[in-house]
Each structure stands twice: as C-alpha cells, then as structure tokens.
Records
---
Amino acid sequence: MTLENVRAQEQAVEALIAASLRPAGTEPPLTETEIGRFVEQRVTLSTEDDAALERAKPSLKRQVRTILQDQLREPATEPDIPKSLLTFGGKKHLMMPQMRTLLNMRLQIMGHRSDSVSEDLESFDWERFYERVKEYLR
Amino acid sequence: MKALSLNPKIIALARALNLPADDAVQSILSHCKSRVARMLKAASGIHTIWDLERVVCGHLNLAIHEIWNDEELRAFSLKYASDEGDSKFAALDMELEQPDTFGVLYQRDRRNAAGEFRYVAFVDCRSDKALRRFFTRWHEIAHCLTTVQQFEFPFRRTNLVDIEKDPVEKMMDMIAGGLGFSEPLFRPILDQVAGGRKLTFDTVEVVRQQFCPDASFQATLNACVTHVATPVVLLEIGLGLKKEQQRALHDPQLQFLPTPVPKPCLRVLRSMPNAASREISLQVHKNWRVPGYSIIAKVFNSDANNRDGQSVENLSSWKSSDGSSLADLDVLIQARKVQDKVYALVCPFR
C-alpha cells in the first residue's frame, strides 16, 4: 500500500467515525459527489462532521492509548481444562474443582531443561500424575 | 536479527513480558540483563559466578536443589509434598525420569511474607546428568527471570525428537549462557588465558578450570567462542539429514508412499560464529555436508584413541548440493570427537 493510499484510508476512517457520531435521523441525503469521494478515496469532511470529529478526538485518543497500554485487558481468567484431563476426570469420577486443582498443579511447573519433554497438556499422562499426588490432595 | 526473533513463541513471550517484539530475542536478553543489573546494585562482594547466583536467586525467591541419587529425590518430594502440603511435588520423579531431562522449575503454593511468588528448581545430578549441572542451574534461573503466568502464555513446549529444540528452551539457553558466563567475571579470565591468540580446546579447558570447574567443557566452549576477541566459528558435526528429508520422515501424508529411508550424512548440526568472525564474513552454514577429505570427517571416523586432529583447509571446497560453495579462505580446523559428534573450531589461518 502506498503512502497516499494509507493517508486516504486514514481520512476515510476518520470520516466514517465522524459520520457515526451524528445523531440518528439527522443524516443529510447523500449526493453522487459524496459517494464518489468515498469510492475514489478523495475524502473531505462536512463542517459538522469536522466539528464532531474534533470533539471526539481527545476521548478517542485516550481510548486508543489505553488499549495500546493494555490497561483494558481483562484480569487473567482461569485456563480451560484440557480435553485429556476432562476425559480422565470423567473416567475417575472426579469433580470439576478436583480437575482444576490437578490442572493448576501442572501449570505451576514453569519449565524443564530437557530435549524431549513436552509440556503439551493434551498429551500429558494425567492418570500417572493423579496416582502420585492423590494421597496429598486436600 | 536472529531467526529465533521471528518465532511466534518467542514473540509471544516478549509480549507477555510487556517487551517490544520487533527483535524479541534482543528484548528478552536485555530484559534479563537489566533485571540482574538492578539486583546487583545493592549487592557487594561478588567475586565468583557462585556469588552472582546467590544474589540472583535471593531476589527471585528461588531455591535450587541438586539431586544426586534416588533417595535424595524421594526426600525432596516428601519434604515439599508432605511438610509444606504442596501436593504437586509428590510427582517430582515423573518430571525427571527422562534421560535427557536435566532440571525442573516449580512455582510453590506458599508465597513469602511480602506476598511474592516463591520458586524451587531441582537439578538432576544423577549419573551423566551431573556434567550439565552448572548450566542447568542457570537455565532454570532463566525460566524464573522470564516467568509469566502460564495461562497468559499461549504456548507450551512441544519438543519433537530429531526435529528442532523448542524455541523457548533455546531462548532460555541463550539467557543462561549470558548470565552463567557473565562477561565481567568471565572475560578477564578468558583474555588472560587466550591472550589474543587463536582459541584452542586446551585454552578452553584452562579457562574452565579457572572460571568454574563445575561448568561443563561444552558450556565453557560456547562461552569462550562468544567472548573471544579473535574470529572463530564453532561447529557441531554429526550424522544428519537434509531439512526436507527430516520433514518427510515426520510427515504423515508421505508415510503412505513407499519411499526409501534416507541415509544420514556427516553434516553441520550447529554453527556458531562469534562477532569477530561475522565481521570478516567467516561462516559455515548449518546442515552443509562435511567433505570426506576434511580433518573433521577423519576425526569422526577415527577410533576413540585418536579423537583430536587439526589441519589447514580451504573453505571453498565445501560445496552444497546446488553447487554453491563457501568463501575462498584458508582456515585452521581443530576437531575433537566426543561420543558420536565432532566439535570443530574454525579460525582464519593467517
């Protein structure tokens, strides 16, 4: 994409944002020239679009900054229980909290120095792991 | 930029650590170095690599235990599972049962008084694994320095034997190499021993004895190559397949076709040029075949009593299957056979 195209696209996006800020029902009828501006990416803003965009810009920038700084990220949620553990848990009649305990124990292993150990949770031998730890499970 | 920097797992790790991902390897290395530098600000009396390790582990709330026999393994397992009530340690033996697994890092259930996470690493020193204990300690420290909540990190290691080492583990090895052979402690010894001359295997052994006799020869060799001022490329040579042959072997689609099993040839399995060699474009490409007349091939085919050799060769006689060749340069090649591999130091002859 050329620099010109990038600029035109940015302007088109700004115009669309501005248009979306207009109160409903106050849309003026579209003219052929206006449609042509979007199609050919020769974007100019009407006075009220321009004003609405200016009003919206500070808040928009704040939102973008927040997103970029990752402050809107949801607090980390609990990981999904892998299918292999669900299958094993079903076979052993384990309750969900017990399966979650097993998973959390596994996730607390932060790393191995190994040439062959896989930490893929789906291929993990949950049965052997459970047999080892069940005596100590609270 | 290293190819590793473009790996999705490494980019994800950099992002999970809130680091710029445009050169993820460099970002992660710098992150670890600056974390350690901050830890050292208030520290004093650091004269050896063990002093450095003690300070770093203190800051990371990391305890490292070495396991020298099965009884010790059972005792540690019981201590943490029973005495601390941390059940996952009951399966410690499972984590270290593979012959090529040298260490494991756990996050403990109980946090410290300040509410910070605490970690414990077990380094397997049973049988031959003991040779790697020094580097394994720093590998586990590297994991601890780059710890992110596991469920925030979308990739978990999935090694496939004979293909490629997991990129995260490669990254940890790079961090471990940088910290375990920390330049301010290691460089003065290397400079004094090497004295601006070509690097030799004997030099590496002297450096190892002076810097840390507990470090393996292999780890010290890597560090010497990285830090030495003269140009050198370290090669690891062994029997191997072309990349496409490796892929074909593991491709389930191709398993249906009656194709002959490819025969492995003597190839460059790993090529590690240092900064000085990159400056003069001295390089030997990974996966290239070793010419049959080379001293490397002779040492590889020799019996165990004749495991060292050296000769002057011209690199232009190294040719690939597409006809291209290496630079027209006379080099001194020193080769040493270790088990089923040959390690070679390649330096410009003049």
---
Amino acid sequence: MNKKDIESLANLARIRLTEEEKEKYAKDIEAVLAYVDKIKEVAVEDKNSDIGAVFNVFRDDTPREINTEEVEKIKNQFPEREGDFLKAKSIL
Amino acid sequence: MNILELTIKKASEDLRNKKYTSFDLCAECVKNIDEKNKELNAILEVFPDWKEQALRADDMLKNRNDNPLCGIPIVIKDNILFLGHKASAGSKILENYVATYSATVIQKLIEVGAVILARANMDEFAMGSSTENSAFGVVKNPFDISRVPGGSSGGSAVSVASGMCLGALGTDTGGSIRQPASFCGVVGFKSSYGFTSRYGAIAMGNSLDQIGPIAKTAEDAQIIQNCIGGFDSSDATSFSNFEKIKKSEIKKIGVPWNEIRKDGIDKQVLENFEEGIQKLEKKGFEIIPIEMPKMVYSLAVYYILMPAEVSTNLSRFDGVRYGMRLEGENLFDVYTKTRAEGFGSETRRRVILGTYVLSHGYFDAYYRKALLVRDAIGEEFNNIFKKVDAVATPTSPVPAFKIGEKSSDPVSMYLSDIFTVPANIAGLPAISVFCGKNDEGLPLGFHLTAKFGQDDSVFDFAKKFEKEN
C-alpha cells in the first residue's frame, strides 16, 4: 500500500486527503491489512455464503400518505433550498 | 435521592409510592449532568423538552401507567433518531442535523412514558473502542479521568455510571455497548441479531449493528430491552419467528481457555475472570473447557466486513441532501471537500479501507473470503452449543486504558474488542456484567454469549451472576 494507492482509493471514496494523511493512511491501512490477512489461514469451502435468520423480506410497493409537516421537516434539512427544491451543483 | 444508588426497578416503585415525581427524578439527573459533564463530557445535549416529557410522565403515572419505565430518565446515544431533536452521530458532518422521524426504539420508549433526557457523546459514527474519536471531544472514565470509558457508546456508559440517568441506549456493532459497560462497571446487553429494530439508528455496519441497553443491573437492562425489542416491519432484518424459539436455561458454560490465555491478556483481567468462573462453579453451573479455534478470526473478519459496510453506508453523506456542505468548483469538489472536512480521521481511514476491500481485484480475497469465514465461525458456535449453553470470556482483555495510549496504533485499539466481536459476527445475544475491580480500582466485566434467541436466558444468567458478586 503506497501513497498512490491511497490517492486512488480516496478518489473512489470521494474524500480529499492532505499529503501527510496519505502517508499516514498508507501505513495504518497496511498494518490493518497485515492483521486481517490472517483469514487466509482458515480453510473454508467455497460456496454461497449463508444468510441470516431473516431474508427476502418484501413489501408491496404502494404509495404512503405523508403530511406536509413531515415533508417540511425533511426540506428544512436541505443544505440549500430554493422554494420546494433542493439546490445542488450541476453534474455536468 | 442518590441517583448513583438508584435502580430503575427501585425508582419505578418510588414513583408509584409517590416518594418523588418523575420531574424531581429527572431534575436530579440534570443537576448531576450540570455538575459532572464539564469533566466527563459524556452528554452532548440535554434535550430542551425534558421538562414537558417529565410532566407528561407524571400525568401518565397518575393514571396508573404500570410500565416500569414510565417516568424514568433515559439517555440515548447520539446516533439514534428522536423526531425534532438533534442527532449528530458524534460527527461534524451531522453537527446540526435535526431528526425528521423517531427510531422505533424511541417511539416505544415514549409510548410507555420514559423520559428521553439527553443525547450521549460517542465515537464518530460509532467507530471506535474508546470514545476518543468524537468530533465533540474525548469522554472520560468516571473511575479515573485519565482513562477512556471504552467505546463507542462511551457517553452512554458514563452517563449511567455517573448518575446522569437511570439507563441508556447504545449501539453495538463489535462490542460498542458491552466493552464500555465493562470499563465503567455497568451492564451492557446486545440482543440476537434482528431482535431489536435498527429503524432510526444511523447505520454503521448493518449486518452487525444492534441497539441495546446499558444499566446498573441486569434486571434494569432487561426492563429496557423488554420495551425496545420485538418485531418491527420498518426493519427488513427484524426477526418475527418468536414462536420457533424455545427458552432453555443456561446451565453448562463453555470456556475457551486457549483463546483467553494468550499474550495480549492483562494478568489481573485473567485472574478476575478465573475467580468469576470459580464462583459460577460453586453456584452449581457446569464449567466445560472448550476449543474455538475459529472464533479468534472474528476480529479479522470484522475489520473487513465492517469497513466495507461503513464505506457504502457513509456514501450518503456527501453534502447534497442534508448535513454539512462545503462549496466547491463542481459537484465532485463539493463531495471531496465536504467529506474531508466533515469526517474525522478514523472515519476516513475506515471508509478508505472499506473501499479497498470491496474494490475489483481484492473483493474475493478479502470481502468474499471474510463472508465465508463468518459462516465458519457461526458453524463453530452451533457445534459448541451442542455441548454447552453459553460461552464465557472476559469482556475485554484489558481494563480501561489511558487516553491516547492506543490512538497511534489502530490494531492494538481494535484488539480490545476481541472477545465481544464474535457475538456480532454470529448474530448472537451477549451481555457484559460487572465482575469486580482490579488493584487500581478499575471495573472489569464478565462476558457471556448464548445461542441465537436465548436473550431472556442471558438475562436470567446475568441476574444469578450478580447475586454471586
């Protein structure tokens, strides 16, 4: 794990890092990977992993009534708002 | 009234005998917060409406509400949503976030008349074992303020241990309820996976997280758990097949001595645990030495699966819909700046680690392999439970450590959860109970993990264990 690897991961994770942080994280993550590499010692059968006690939980896709007060609470959390719209930078 | 000596059980009787009101009780807790929080930093905010909540509870008590939690002041971890109240998950990115709905556990507490008094400090997004990673400062251990309270529910554990409330909610992804409970001399419980709704808990590792109680006694913890647990259709991983579970008393206790007597274990922790085991033997429990060679891989599995889940969960915090937003030249710039400023160091480290184990070329070697080892660990537990009813270990291999002692070495910090993580990996119920103190006066915890669904039996055991001490 070197600085360049961390840079590309940080890019994928949408996190800006300082030069100092890149070096520190390369070292830290190297140490964590050295520890978790232990799992390679465990012999396991390659199969589909079992899932928990509950799986394939579905519900009908029906619209739910939501009152304006509730909607307003959500809109109040927008970092920037224009009327009823959430304002954000354009993608392109 | 001395909150430090008061249990939920006793306070609930006192409220009904009109010795004092819920308002008096809550006011006393708020007084303790005012006095002690400057030093301990356990509480982020006393909720502005606590008085109205307490008065409502007093009304409910007058109308003969018979729930033991009616009028009881409860502190919640800062990652559990309470409609109209701040929930920041210990992070700058959510510093001013106001919850737009209440978690199921909060709805249930309010329904029975509990008073949601305050929100507790925590490691950012529940990532940590010491509550040193909060954006709002380090939490101190009330037994020695130069030491950590454990984490990530450090604020919740401290609030119970220092008389700021009678019970608290935490969340437990790898030991985040049980380890701080042990460091602070209180009881912490994590239910079987799916037994407590996660709806409204800010997710860290969805396949591992459970909300749970921290209290002074096992009985108190059970009172809270009985209220917050149960099926919830809002949580797709919620368990509903309760009729399939047959309660079975815990009599035979397995001890994986080889895994416990290792280099990393503190000498006094080991002695204390051995004494705990001897007491259980005298009490008539059958103690059976067991081997669990795969269990020790739990922590390694955990540090692959958890960061993977973290990296996907935290992608929603991008400065667009809620929380902090820093302006930038373009959208990408907004993302990277906001996430750099908004997340603390440990959070960023885990997001990057998670991105790595999920990335093309490493997915099979890490993530997929970890899932398979997770199954193997579950299977090992299943096989062990043919011989014994539960598995006992110390809660943590070390007592509360010094602030700053482990912050430069992530792996040594992670190792303080080695005995609590297996229960999350296998989705099993587990508890930490107070087991006495070491020579320096620091509390130590005794940890028990039982079969899936045997949550009530775990409480029965813990109540017997407490009588022993």
---
Amino acid sequence: MSDCLSDISDFLASPDKQFVFLDQSGRRWPLLKRLAAVALTGGVLAIAVFLGSLLVPPSLSSPLAAMKKEIRALQRRQERPPPVADPLWQRYAKNRQNRPVRPGPAAGTEPLRSGKILLGHFEPSDPESWLSLQAHAGRLTHIASGGLSLEDVEGTLRVTRDEKAENFFAENHLKHLVVLTNLGAGGWVPEAVEYLAFGPQAHRDRFLTDLVAALETIGAQGVLIDWQNVDSAYQADVTALFAQMAATLHAAGRELWLSVPVGDDLNAYDLPALAPSVDRFVAVLHDENGQTDAPGPIASKDWFEGWLQALVGGMDPSQWVVELGAYGYDWNASRSEAEEIPFSDVMTRADSSGAGDVSVGAPDFEPSFSYTEGGLEHTIWFLDAVTFANQVRAARAYGIAGLAVDRLGEEDPGIWEVLANTSPGLERIPAHEGITHYGAGEIVSIINQDPADGTRTVQKQEDGTRTERYGIFPKYPTLRHHGGTDPQKVALTFDDGPDPKWTPKILEILRAHGAKATFFVVGANAEKYPALLRRIVAEGHELGSHTFTHANLAEISAHQIALELNATQRVIEAATGRSTRLFRPPYEANAHPDDTAQLRALQIVQDMGYLVVFEEIDPQDWNHPTAAEILQRVQEQRKNGSILLLHDAGGDRSQTVAALPKIMDELRARGDRVVSVADLLGITAGDVMPPVAAARTHPAILAICGMGFAIVRILQDWMGIFILAATGLVALRTVLILLLAILQARRKTDPAGFFPSLSILIPAYKEEKVIAATIRSLQASSYPAPFEIVIIDDGSPDGTAGEVERLAATDPRVRLLSQPNSGKAAALERGVGAAAHEILVFLDADTRFDPETLSRLVAPLSDERVGAVAGHPRVGNKRTLIARCQDIEYVVAFNLERRALSFWNAVTVVPGAVSAFRRQAIREAGGFRHDTLAEDTDLTLAIHEAGWRIECAPNAYARTEAPETVATLVKQRFRWALGTLQCVWKHRRQAFSRRNPALGWFSLPGVWLFQFLLVAVAPLIDLLFLQAALAGRWTEVLPYFSVFLLSDLLLAVVACRMEGEKVSSALWMLPMRFVYRPILSFVVWKALAAALRGAWVGWGKLERTGSVVNVSIS
Amino acid sequence: MKTHTFLAALLLTACARPPARPSPSPVLSPALVPSQGALLGAYMDFGEREDDVSLEKIRAFETLAGKAPALIASSSYWGEQTFPLAALKQIAHHGAIPLVFWSPWDRPYDQDRGPDRFGLDKILAGKWDRYIDAWADAAKRFKHPFFVSLCNEMNGSWFPWSGYFYGQDQPANGDVRKFAGPETCKAAWRYIVNRVRARGATNIRWVFHLNNYSYPEAEWNAMDQYYPGPEFVDWLGISVYGKQFASDPWVEPADLLDYPYATIGAIDPGKPVMITEFGVGEFPKSGDKARWIQDIFSRIKTHCPRVKAAIFWHERWQNADGTFSNLRLNSSVPARQAFQAAVQDPFWIGNPTQ
C-alpha cells in the first residue's frame, strides 16, 4: 500500500483533520495489526492441523490381513462318476422302435454353410451377455431369450419383457425365439405342463390364446419350449398338445421349437411323433452333470457323441439344431447346487489357485481342476473353445440345420474363431475388459490387474479331435468375495445416516431384538451428530464410511477420494475414539459391478486400508416403497446374499422403520442369525473398528477437527444461499437497468436552443503535456453562446502554467488562476468562486470535448429543477487490453447504467471529467469538500440532499485518458474505491431514506452490494465455480455462472447498440470479466483495509502520456 | 405342564377377535389333542431326506393350500447324526407344531434294503446311546412341544426297522406265543423312549405310527403285535395312501380308512388317533384325485371321531422306471380346488398365527 501512497503526499499539502476514516489517535491500526497477527497465527495453525488430518492418510492396517483366506490348487485328479456300462443314450436309441437307427457318419470337416442357423442364448440382465451379443450379432441368426413361464398348475403364463433387447434383435434382423419354461417361484412346476396335456380342452385353448398373444406382443419369431421334469406317463398327451400348439402357432405365423432334454426327461417326448409338429428340435447337449448333481463333466466326448447319434442319427438331421454348452460349473460343499460361471471366472479361479495340468484329453475331453478356498474344496468342470471345436466337428458331420450356444457372455471367446474358421488356432486366449469373480459373499477385495491374454497348446489327434493343455491363464480385473460361506448368517447395514429422527428409532428396534448392525455414515451427517455416532458404537454396532459428501467415486479424482475418506474417518475418530476399516461406495453397492472405472476407485479405497462392503439384498427403501413391499423384497432377495441394505437417513424413513421389526422376525423365522459384518468375515469387532492411536485423539486436535468441519459446513450452507441470492440480485438488477435505460432513452427529447453563457473550469496539476490539447478541443467547440475557460493550476512544479498563459495570450476566453498546491477540491472551489457565469462546466485537464459536447451537456439544465448533468467520458487511448476493457466498461457505466439511474433521479456520481452544474446547486450543497478522495461523488450526493435533480447526457462525449497498465489502473481504482467508500459512508443517512427513494433504496444499496460486496467475494465464487467444474459438476454451476456472464454481456450489447458502437465490441466484456475482476477485487480489499487503517490517502495521479487522440463522433 | 406357544396363540386369537370369527376356538390338551375338530397337518416336499425345511417352501405350500397347517411334518434320519434344530425352530417360529419322523437308517435312504448300521439290535446293544442322548438333549433345549413318529410303518416290509427284518414270526426268546419281529421292534421303541425321557426331553409326544394295512398280512405282523404299551405312546397313527404307482389299483378312501381306523383304535381306546400320512397320486386315467381328496377329508370328519390330526403328504417323486408319483395337492387344477375346499371346513384347525 505504501507505494501507492508515496506520490500522494506531495500533492496534499497538509493533513486534513476532517478526512473521512481518518484515525486521529493513530492507535487503531497498530491495535488492529496486533490482533490480526495473533488471530492469523492461531488460524494458520488450526488450519494446518485440520488440513493435515485430512490430507495425511492414516496408516490403516487392512483387516484383510486378519482374514487369512487361502486359495490353492488341489493336485489330485478329478473324481467323477464311473462310466456306465449301458449308457442311457444307447438304451434310448435301442428302445426307439419307430425308425431304424442309421449308423453315425464319419466325423467330417464340412464347414457350416452360410444360411445355417446359429442360435445364441441371451440373458439381458448380464452386461457380458450384451457385450457378446453386440460383438457377434452379425454372425448369429437366432436369439433365444427368456420371457415366458408356465408357473402354476392353473396355467398362468408369466411374461417378462425386455424391450431394449427386443429392439436390438429387430434392428439386427435376429429372429427372436422366446423361451417358454415351466419354472415357478419355487422351482420347476411339471404339473403345469402335465395338466395342460391331460386336462380339459378349454384349459389348453386358453393357454394357447395367451401364448399367441404374448408372442405377438413381443414380436417374436416363435417359441422355444424348455420344459423339465415332465412325467413320461403323459407322453401321448404331450404329443397331442404339441400338435395343437403347432396348428395354432403356425396359423398365427409363429414357429414352434423344442429344446430336447437328454436323460430321463427325454421320455416325455416321442420325437418321431413330434416331428410333424415341431419346426426345429434343439438337442441340448450339455449338463451331463447338472448343478444339483455331483461334480462331473458337463459334456464329455462319449456322452456328447452318444446322444448326438441317438437323437439326430435316427431322424432327419435338417430338423435339428445342436446346442453346445459354453460355461463352467463350480461345485463346493457349502452350496446346494453348483455355481454356473463364465469362462473368464474359470480362468481367474485357475490362475489364482495356481492350478496346474488343466487339459483336454481322453477319456472325457473336458478340462477340470480342483482348489481349496478358505478350507472349502471346489471342483470346476468347464467347456471352452477346444471342447467347442471338437463338438462342432462331431455335429457338423450329421448335416444338421445349425448350432446353438448356451450362453452368450459366458463363452470362451475362442468359440467365435471356431465358428468363423475351419482350422482355428485357439492357442491364444484373449482377455477382455470385464470383471471376474471368485469366492462367496459381498465383502470384496480388489485385484485390479490389467487384462492380459493367456496361452494354451492345442494339438490335433489323428482322428481330428483336438487336445489341449493350458499354459498361462488370461488375467482380468477381479473381485474376490468374502463373508458368504454361512447361508444362515445375515448382516444388516444402514447407509447415509446418522439422522436425528430415524437413526434413534432404528437403534431402538435393534436393541429390542438384540441385533447388531453396521452403519455406513456420510461424513457430513456424522459431523453434525457426533452423539449419534457415539451411541451407535456404545450399543455395540459397527460404523463404516460412506464418503463425506455421498460422492460418486467413479466421478472424482484419486485425491478427492482420499479427502472424502480421510474427512469421514476423522469425524468418526473425533466422535468415538475409534477408526473404521469398512467402506461402502455410494450409488453402486451391488456386489457384481460391471464398471472397471469403479474398480479403479475401489482399488484406491482398498489401498488406504479399507474393506469394501457391498450388498446383494437391496429392497430399495429409498424409493418410497411401503413397509410391506420392503419386507416382500427382502424375502425375495434373501437367497441372493447375506448383506441387507437399508437407509437411516435421506428422507422419510418411516416405512423402513416400520419394516425393520418385520424383517427381523422374518430372518429369525428363517432360522437366520443377524450378525455384524466382522462376524460374517470371521474377524473381531476390534479388527474393523480399532481404537485410534493416542496422538491423533488428543482432545485439542479432535476439537480443532470438529470445529474445522463445522466451519466448512456452515460456510457451505451459507455459500449456497449467498450464491443463489447474488445470482438473483444480479439478474434482477440487469433487467431493471435495461428497462429503465430504455424508458429513459424514449423519454429524452433534446431541448434544443438552450445556450446560456458558460464558465468552463479545469483544475490542473502537472498537466504540461496535455493541457494545451484540452483547451484547443474547447476552442473548437461549436457552442453558439459565449463561454470562458478557467484553468486553476494547483501549484504545478512543471510548465503547466506556462502552457496556459501561451494560449491565453491568443484567446481572451482563456484564463489562468494559480494557487499554491492545496488539493483538487480547493482548486475547484476556487474556480467556482472565480467563474463569471451561473452555469459551470467541469472537465479534467486530460480530457477533450467533441465540438457538440458543450451543447449537449448543458441542454438538460434548461429545466430549472436540474442542478447537475453528467456527461459521458470515453476512453481516448484504446491501445492496450486494459484500456479497451475500460472503454466498454465506461460505455456500460455511463451510457446504460447512468441513463437508467437518471430515469429515477438516482445518479450517484457526476464525473469530474465531464459535467455541468448550476452554481446555485453547488453552493446549496456546500461546495467542493476535501474530506474524501471522490469530491465528485461527494458533491453529487450533497446536491441530491439539497433537493436538486441530476440528469445525464449520454451523448455529451469527453475523451479521457484511461490507465494503460495494471499498476496505474490499480492506483486509479483504489482512489475511486476508497473515495466512493468514504462518500457512501459520509452520506449513509441517504441510504434507505424516503426523500429520494430511488437513490436510497436502489442506487446507494447497489453501490454497497455490487461495487463492494460482490466484487470483493467474486474471486472466491470464481474459485468455487472452478472447483465444481473440475470435479465434473459442470451442470450444477453452469446456470449461476451463465447468469453472471450473460448479464454482463447483455448489458454490454444493449449499451453498444445505444452508443452506436459495433455490437461485437461487447465481447470485450468477456476478457474484462476474467482480467478485471481479480484486479477490482484486489482494489476493493485494499480500500477496505485502508478505511480500516484510517490512514491518509490522497489522489493517486496518472502518469500523463499525452496519448489521447481526438476523435469526433458523428 | 408348561403352556406352549400354540396354546397361547389359540387363546390369543380367540380373545382378540371372537365376534369376527365364528370358527370354534379349540383348546389343546397337554398331549396336544384339540378339544374339538382336528389339526390339519402337512408334509411339504422337503427334499430327498425330507428335512430340507424352509420358510419359502412352507409359504409356497400355504399359498397352494389356501390354509396354513397347524402341524408340519419333516424327518430326522439317523444317518445324518444330527437333531434338526434349524428346521424345527422355523416351524415353531412360524406358529406350527413340528412332527418329526425319527428314522434309524443310513444313507442312501433307499427302501427295501434291510437293516444297516442302525439296526434295532445294534440300538438295543447300546451302540447308539450317545446319539440318542445327544438328540434328546437337543430336543429338550428346543423346548417347544413336538410330535415324534419313531420307526414308522413297522408293520410293512420296506423300511429296515420293520419286524419283517427281525425274525418275523420266529419265537421270541424261546416263547412261542411271541413273535421275534414285532418283539424286537417293541423293545427298541421302549429302549429309545426311555433313554430320551431319561434326558428330560418331556416336550415330545410319541406317535405310534403303523401302515393302514400290514405287509405281509399275517398274524405275527398284526398291528397290535407292535404296540409297546400305553406308557410309551401318546398318540396312535396310521398311514393311509391311495394309488401311488402306475401298477397300483385305484382304491377309494372308505376302503383305506374304515377298517384300519377301527383296528388301530382298538389297540388302545385311551389314545387319540392321527392320520400320520395320507395322500394319493395323480392318475387321470385310473381315478378322480379331486374326489378322493374330498372324500377322505369328509370321511375322517364323519366316520373317525377319534382322529384329532391328519397330515397330508404333499410330494412328487420319480420312480425307478422314470415315471413320477405326484402326490402334490396341485397335481391338477381339480385336485387343488378340492383340497382348498376341504380344508376350508373349520373342523380342520389351521395355524392360528398365519
């Protein structure tokens, strides 16, 4: 600040005791300085502690270490059921009397002819299935997708549609076969089919009507019947049923396909008798050992070829499609049935366990391996591209109609190579971007490795059958699951709290049932209600982190993730003295995410020492279901997993609270045990919520952290309201200014013919370079009446006086008054006293008038009530960016804003650079005073007080010299800002006065709000906008930001139009926003500091360059 | 005798809404005999070992039946060496009374195989004392009163604990008036019940449960030959099945029920009678399952006043020849309708909590 003040002291002769804000005692500033120093040191220390606690990640020991779950391969060869001497397929072929069994053809290499069927089984709920479908839609001809089930003996036809999938099929010209099963809620319902077959005709008729209607609604090509467990006793009835189905469907233009099961179920179908009815038979040649059987091959070579021969060999092969499996089964003792897994999961499990000798060869020609995980033995059999190639080769020999793949998304990608190529290599195993899984449960550890291809060696035997041996298994990003081994254990989790209304209610219910739960708290809520956190822990529950702001991890940076988690951790630590190792991501809590971006985020979380806790039971209680619906969803989903997600905050949770006791009863009725997350994992509560190290629990540090969070929260709350209010006010002001300016422009009629004699007064200090040009511009004026030009030299040490005297010698209208240096106000006062005429025109020594300026400027004074008129200064030196910005600023301020204010007689400043006054008004206002830095504003407000009107003359142009560098601009604006501050303070009584309501309620508050408050906080708001934008929350801040920017732009455009400037000049407003705002903000802060400091501040002086170019505006 | 949940529930229901429900409000005696009507019971297709009890299956059955049974049957096979605590807890918590078929046989639980390591002689020799004691202790800890049908259908030839496999008509211990087969069965019954009672499991009601007709039909194999004595038995029970296999003839309920009811009742006039299992397969070409169901429910009510409980056998299984026996109540639409209509009679007491 001192540099700014240094050149002022020589202008101001002596300190004036009346100067506004002057601290006469001189004690105010040192005291303030000392107080500020103490506060600053304390504040910086507190902020350092607070930020340190947020930014320095705590060294958390991951509970994963305590879990010690080992996965390793078992070396022994797979046990499998012994081969049967008299296999079913042989018996089946023998028993079939209707047709002689043709001998099997020699295995051929005939490629699948184009035009042959390729049917893919598709599962719309599986993203991998979608990826596969999209990648291979061009090769597929038919799609089988679920959708219909006969779910009870009454023949109720349940229709499940997926329109996205249906549209995809249609767009890609895939023929859609809707699968019709006999699956009910609790399993297969063979009675539904049997009664359809043997029941009354009306029952069949109704079913067929429903079926045709469903197929037509879906727009399907036909139906693929997949019925299981049907009693062979009804074989004849089933045959008749198919005849009727075929007739009805064909009449409706739909096809009838039949999935032909092998084994006992086959006996329900008399295939030769069905042949005339069924369009295609699909031989389901997988599931030799199904999910409920003991471990064994899914489609061994002998079994596959035996059934192929038994089914297709005896019939017309062109009616047959052969369905090949493309998946794996993982059997383990903890599950009642094997887990069906995609090929990629098979690879991950083989890789993780270190399985050796995974190969295809005699006798089964199907790969398998065993491993143990957490002491539990697993056996996997799976089908891959090599088994697929062998089976395709065997099937092709029969001249079948085509192939089917069960199912898309689970296959070894190599099968597509087999389908495309007669001699595929298959040795490279391409990895994909998907996520693989192993283990059981919803608590996951992340192995976020890049996908990497695997290899296998493939050889052909003499008969053409391929053998293989896996070398390197492909690698994928992987989730390892924990905590799901005991089907009778279930954990309750509550997200988004704590909440003072709902959390206590939930705690009461839990206490009444003696149950322990886990609360995943949002840090911001936790910070508000530390007592609730303490209560949760005291009552034996666990706390987990749910981020500080409920942030979507996939959308924020790694640093922000760390900040979110650290902040939440600190809040929990501060409140409870314990830290947590449990984390649940907001938004995506399903244990089978399909987004690898999310996986990367979770890897960061895991690296920080957290365990990621997902869930598989989600009744979506946030979406306002009733308590009964919540309970029903829990009942339906209980089998899916062992972690239940509910919410204890974020809206009206009354239904959750109402459902909770019912859920507890339900779980108890099932024989479940409600346990904590730690219990699910088999670790202790201390492992997931260890006590905080003593250094971090020091009460002072906890208090600082607590306060820090409170301040941040309060700031955030108020900042939101402030930004909203500011945006509203800016918009309102813009509209009002535009409206008033337009009204004023319409009203204004030039009262021509008012040409009083004038005294033109020019105060000058060190104006040697420019004064002559200024005087000459006046001499060139077209003003028709007499006028005098009075220059008051304020004791300039340079040649200013000489310049004036030189001109006065040739023109009697020019007069020089000289005085010892005593300030601008004194100079003006002297000029007023010496003026010969009643109407006074003021201009600065560096300002040049256009020839018409004088006429236009004094015209409004023809009205006797008008005491002063503001002219329109323009920037004469538009050479630098800074100057150009000021030009547009001046246009907006003088042409538009002042015009608008004058409509309501609420102009706050008549600029010293170009103005006209009635001497009487100046006298009544008390003349020019020197207790402020802005004597023009001071005088303007005083004239208002004296009851005069103040007008503006927007077309009375004066070219003035604007600062061209940032330094000079800062100096000028600092003087204006402090001067204005002094004036509005000095005339504070006029604010909100009823004498001149427009001035008191609009102009003066506007000065405080728009010239000081908003300008001061603008950089802060800009930073907030920038931070929000960088965090990807563009859409949230864009409306506010646009309002600010558009308001500026709109005003500029309108101002330029009124001014006759090119509208494109308005675009200068944009750089102005970003260059100017920080400067103005700095200046405002400086002025506020100066006001506080109460020091002497003088009139900053421009370095004159003499660069104003006289341009006449036509 | 302690009050139990069922009794409490019945009383509560009766107190809570007497005017709205005109149905009788039966009260259970300590032996779990209702003061009027009969308890409706069911076995609900609980899987191969008849012990895979789940709330889902119970609820699914109740939906099919249109009424929640008061009594739910499941099995405890000795080969598992466990007490079915989880299953029984679910049933009791659901508000029903459990009935357990406690059957001394070993995996793979196939009929017609004869005695295995759980032979009655081995039990009598004390080989399984520890298991019996542990089972009794668990039963005692379970606390809720429940029925146990021990060694059911001893007068048949298919289960390994039948008299058929223990000397049939041979003199027992040299006494020509006694037959070795039934005597061994009786001895085993008494031995087991004594051991269980000695452990303090007084919450068990013992059901003496025979087939409605003896196979083979012979003097030594007559029902009364197997009766261990009133002090060892709380209820008398019979299985009453209609046609189950394609090779069986269709037989109407009157022929299956009347004579056996009279015979079992005559063994001990002081005991209530339970139709411990009943059901019929779906054979649309042989007979009308719906009418059979309707008949047997009404015949029990009208002709068998001592029957205080009946357990419908809801199961579908596959036979060796690949065909199925479908005893489920929903094997056809008319069968289900008949069942739903029959159990609506307030005579059949359901689960008051559901």
